[in-house]
Amino acid sequence: MRAFIPISLLFFCISATADVVIFKNGDRLTGKVVHKLGPELVFETTNAGTVNIQWSEISTLSTEKPVVVMLQDSKTISEAILEPAAEGSTDLANSGSVNLDEIAYLNPNPEQSGIGIDYKGRATLAASDTRGNTTARRLYAEAQLTARARDYRYSLGGKTNQQHDSGARTASNWATDGNYDWFVEGKKQFNYVRGSLEHDRFKDIDLRSTAGTGYGVQLVEDNSSNISIRGGLDYVVIDHYTAGNESYPALGWGVKASHRPLKYNIELFHEQDGFQQISEGSNMILRTRTGLRAPIAAGINASIQINLDWEKDPAPGLKSTDTAMLIGLGYDW
Questions:
Q1: In the 8-state DSSP scheme, what is residue 314?
Q2: Quick check: 212 pLDDT over 80?
Q3: Is-contact 60 84, C-beta < 8 A?
Q4: What's the mean pLDDT in 156-181?
Q5: Pairing of strands 225-240, 246-259
Q6: Of all residues in the chain, what percent carry a pLDDT higher than 90?
Q7: Residue in 145, 140, 141, 155 with CA at minimum distance from that of residue 122
């Protein structure tokens, strides 16, 4: 009996210094509240790591330290310690009880609270160096920076691909792009402006520039998925090395999608930009990136992706399709 008392006290102390989720079936989970976004609570545990809990399965919850609470019907946010209450509710210390259905966010990001900007970046590198009977070198690098606030978002990206085979240059291209989205207040729809620059000697493109504007929809934006589509009008200008220069208006579109399956620690992604000429002529340009990323440690991930560039009417004597499979390492911050 004497041994039981300190063990019980130790268990009580551990529970008292941790956030606690009580499920509707009576189960309890201790750890730390990370944030609540959409229908899920992100909860960090000691043994199981970070888990996503369905908000609808929670009876009540409590926190050791104050968390930021934002309700469904108000943009006002407050900071409070959560205390256990009747099923389907929680007590905000010194503020009374609130139903769980009324809570929109816990520890909201800047894009949810409207306070500050959330910056995210990613860089990927794929390289090879072959020596001996065959001598070949290849370097592919890309990077992207995204800034997200509640009412707007912008991103900048760039990539380069350089390749030599037996001393001869076999690939030399680079591209950069950017967009600015401003959201309709309280909605998932947004207006946008975007532009891009591209150089590819082996496609006879000294410089291809695009600029456009249009309308988009953020279909999904939560812990596991991010999907947006956009469409509008663009203007395309192409300066060739040997072929005649081109310029024309086009219907433009874009797709960005990523998804993390709950059972697998990977990210699937697909990005696409397209331009369909609407003046005299029928040229179409399509650029896609598709693949997956698997985290390794401390923001480092392994990635495999396929890049596909297609042009309906390429310069004379050149092929319409360019594809590249890339295996490399990336870093997210």
A1: P
A2: yes
A3: yes
A4: 91
A5: antiparallel
A6: 55
A7: 145
Mean model confidence pLDDT for the chain: 87
Pairwise CA distance, residues 268 & 159, whole Å? 20
pLDDT top residue among 249 and 38: 249
Q: 10 Å Cβ neighbour count for 106?
A: 20
- Separation of alpha carbons 173 and 129, rounded Å: 19
Amino acid at 89: S
pLDDT of residue 329: 93
Record the tokens describing residue 204, joined without a space.
């006879």
Q: Which residue has the tokens 């797709």?
A: 255
Structure-token match 């500050």, residue found:
116
Gap between the Cα atoms of 159 and 286, Å rounded? 16
Q: CA 118 to CA 127: how far, in whole Å?
A: 31
Alpha-carbon span 152 to 183, nearest angstrom: 6
- Express as a percent the part of the chain with pLDDT over 70: 92
Q: Which residue has the tokens 């005649």?
A: 244
Q: How confident is the model at residue 17 (pLDDT cuts 50, 70, 90)?
A: low
Q: Are 246 and 218 in contact (CB under 8 A)?
A: no
pLDDT in tens, 179-208: 999 998 767 899 999 999 999 999 999 999
Residue 164 tokens read as 């030599």
Strands laid side by side in the 82-84 sheet:
82-84, 89-92, 96-99
- What are 121's two structure tokens? 């970046």
Rg from Cα positions in the chain? 26
Pairing of strands 205-221, 77-80: unpaired
Per DSSP, the three-state class of 171 is: strand
The CB density around residue 216, as the number of other CB atoms within 10 Å, is 23
Q: Do 230 and 270 touch, CB atoms closer than 8 A?
A: no
CB 225 within 8 A of CB 40: no
Provide the 10 A C-beta neighbour count for residue 31. Answer: 18
Q: Give this prediction's pTM.
A: 0.74
- Nearest of 147, 53, 153 to residue 106 by alpha carbon: 53
